[in-house]
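Continuing the batch. This is chain 6 of the set; chains 1 through 5 are on the previous pages. Same settings as before, nothing changed between runs. Recording input and output for traceability.
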Amino acid sequence: AGTVRLVFQPAEEGGAGARRMLDAGLAAAQPPIGSAFALHNWPYPETPSGTVGTRAGTIMAGSGSYEITLTGAGGHAAVPHKNIDAVVCGSAVVMALQTVVSRLTDPLQSVVLSTTVFRAGGAASNVM
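Output for chain 6:
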Protein backbone atom coordinates (compact mmCIF):
# COMPACT_ATOMS: atom_id res chain seq x y z
CA ALA A 1 0.00 0.00 0.00
CA GLY A 2 1.11 3.52 -0.59
CA THR A 3 0.63 6.62 -2.63
CA VAL A 4 1.62 6.97 -6.25
CA ARG A 5 1.97 10.53 -7.46
CA LEU A 6 2.25 11.22 -11.18
CA VAL A 7 4.16 14.43 -11.83
CA PHE A 8 4.54 15.89 -15.30
CA GLN A 9 7.50 18.24 -15.50
CA PRO A 10 7.20 21.12 -17.96
CA ALA A 11 10.13 22.66 -19.85
CA GLU A 12 12.82 20.31 -18.57
CA GLU A 13 15.27 21.25 -21.29
CA GLY A 14 15.05 24.96 -20.57
CA GLY A 15 16.12 24.54 -16.95
CA ALA A 16 12.81 25.67 -15.49
CA GLY A 17 11.01 22.35 -15.03
CA ALA A 18 12.13 20.55 -11.88
CA ARG A 19 13.48 23.65 -10.13
CA ARG A 20 10.22 25.53 -10.68
CA MET A 21 8.21 22.55 -9.42
CA LEU A 22 10.34 22.23 -6.29
CA ASP A 23 10.11 25.97 -5.63
CA ALA A 24 6.33 25.68 -5.97
CA GLY A 25 6.22 23.14 -3.13
CA LEU A 26 6.52 19.70 -4.72
CA ALA A 27 9.16 18.60 -2.18
CA ALA A 28 6.80 19.46 0.68
CA ALA A 29 3.91 17.40 -0.75
CA GLN A 30 2.16 15.10 1.69
CA PRO A 31 2.56 12.22 2.04
CA PRO A 32 6.28 12.81 1.42
CA ILE A 33 7.84 11.56 -1.79
CA GLY A 34 10.09 8.61 -0.94
CA SER A 35 11.34 7.81 -4.43
CA ALA A 36 11.13 9.40 -7.83
CA PHE A 37 11.44 7.76 -11.22
CA ALA A 38 11.52 9.71 -14.44
CA LEU A 39 10.71 8.97 -18.02
CA HIS A 40 10.85 11.11 -21.09
CA ASN A 41 7.73 11.24 -23.18
CA TRP A 42 9.39 10.71 -26.52
CA PRO A 43 7.64 9.40 -29.61
CA TYR A 44 10.04 6.63 -30.60
CA PRO A 45 8.77 5.20 -33.90
CA GLU A 46 9.59 1.66 -32.83
CA THR A 47 7.46 1.90 -29.65
CA PRO A 48 3.74 1.32 -30.22
CA SER A 49 1.32 3.96 -28.96
CA GLY A 50 0.23 3.28 -25.39
CA THR A 51 3.47 1.47 -24.53
CA VAL A 52 6.07 2.44 -21.95
CA GLY A 53 9.56 1.09 -22.56
CA THR A 54 12.88 1.20 -20.79
CA ARG A 55 16.27 -0.47 -20.75
CA ALA A 56 19.33 -0.62 -18.55
CA GLY A 57 21.71 2.32 -18.68
CA THR A 58 21.35 5.86 -19.84
CA ILE A 59 18.57 6.54 -22.30
CA MET A 60 18.30 10.32 -22.54
CA ALA A 61 20.91 12.99 -22.01
CA GLY A 62 21.23 15.83 -19.61
CA SER A 63 21.61 19.24 -21.11
CA GLY A 64 23.97 22.03 -20.34
CA SER A 65 24.94 25.26 -21.92
CA TYR A 66 27.98 27.34 -22.58
CA GLU A 67 28.59 30.86 -23.72
CA ILE A 68 31.78 32.17 -25.28
CA THR A 69 32.43 35.84 -25.99
CA LEU A 70 35.13 36.74 -28.50
CA THR A 71 36.09 40.35 -29.10
CA GLY A 72 37.99 41.58 -32.13
CA ALA A 73 38.92 44.93 -33.60
CA GLY A 74 36.50 45.12 -36.49
CA GLY A 75 36.55 47.33 -39.51
CA HIS A 76 35.37 47.49 -43.08
CA ALA A 77 35.09 44.14 -44.89
CA ALA A 78 36.96 45.59 -47.89
CA VAL A 79 40.18 45.69 -45.85
CA PRO A 80 40.14 42.46 -43.79
CA HIS A 81 43.93 42.57 -43.37
CA LYS A 82 43.49 45.66 -41.15
CA ASN A 83 40.95 44.01 -38.85
CA ILE A 84 40.94 41.36 -36.16
CA ASP A 85 38.00 39.27 -37.32
CA ALA A 86 36.22 37.69 -34.36
CA VAL A 87 33.86 35.85 -36.76
CA VAL A 88 36.74 33.83 -38.25
CA CYS A 89 38.02 33.12 -34.72
CA GLY A 90 34.52 32.10 -33.59
CA SER A 91 34.13 29.83 -36.60
CA ALA A 92 37.40 28.11 -35.67
CA VAL A 93 36.13 27.64 -32.11
CA VAL A 94 32.92 26.01 -33.38
CA MET A 95 34.91 23.66 -35.61
CA ALA A 96 37.31 22.80 -32.78
CA LEU A 97 34.39 22.01 -30.47
CA GLN A 98 33.32 19.31 -32.92
CA THR A 99 36.52 17.41 -32.15
CA VAL A 100 35.64 17.20 -28.44
CA VAL A 101 33.29 14.31 -29.13
CA SER A 102 35.45 12.56 -31.72
CA ARG A 103 38.80 12.89 -29.97
CA LEU A 104 38.20 13.41 -26.26
CA THR A 105 35.47 10.93 -25.40
CA ASP A 106 35.25 7.15 -25.41
CA PRO A 107 33.71 6.08 -28.73
CA LEU A 108 31.50 3.62 -26.85
CA GLN A 109 29.92 6.46 -24.86
CA SER A 110 26.97 8.45 -26.12
CA VAL A 111 27.99 12.11 -26.34
CA VAL A 112 26.55 15.05 -28.25
CA LEU A 113 27.91 18.57 -28.29
CA SER A 114 25.98 21.10 -30.35
CA THR A 115 26.57 24.77 -31.02
CA THR A 116 23.08 26.06 -31.67
CA VAL A 117 23.46 29.85 -31.65
CA PHE A 118 26.22 31.99 -33.15
CA ARG A 119 25.77 35.77 -33.02
CA ALA A 120 28.18 38.10 -34.72
CA GLY A 121 28.42 41.64 -35.91
CA GLY A 122 25.87 44.36 -36.04
CA ALA A 123 23.33 45.60 -38.51
CA ALA A 124 25.76 46.49 -41.32
CA SER A 125 26.64 43.63 -43.66
CA ASN A 126 29.94 45.14 -44.80
CA VAL A 127 31.51 45.63 -41.37
CA MET A 128 33.54 42.98 -39.62
